[in-house]
Task: structure prediction
Amino acid sequence: MAIKYTSKYESPWASPETLHTLNTGDWRYQRPITKVNKCSHCATCYIYCPVGCIKDMGAYYAADMGNCKGCGICAGVCPTNVIMMIREGRED
Result:
């Protein structure tokens, strides 16, 4: 006898909210800062961000602080080193 279970969610662990409707930026201890005048607009940070919180600001890319977890991947992959990570709470 097979038991059939149906759910309106795509998996047992899924919730009705999507990732970008939750403000998850409070989890981080560091945040990315982009030197906007030196950004080459290559989109490498946009491609590698695991959360997808990098936004195209026209002439540069910047992280959405509401969703950024502070992992630092964007700073690590930036070929021009214009993204730096600073400790949360600092004003730079």
Observations:
- The chain has one domain: 21-87.
- The first strand starts at residue 30 and ends at 34.
- The two ends are 63 Å apart (CA to CA).
